[in-house]
Predict the 3D structure of the following.
Amino acid sequence: MSSRQIWLAIGAAVLIILLILWLTGAMFTGDTDVAACLPML
């Protein structure tokens, strides 16, 4: 594996983890509307 592929895999894994955390937080707060979360960013 080249260095570029390793960093690409790390970046993809981080994005997937952030997405899972975001969706979990949305489930706990009852806010599953994506548009409602955008103003908070």
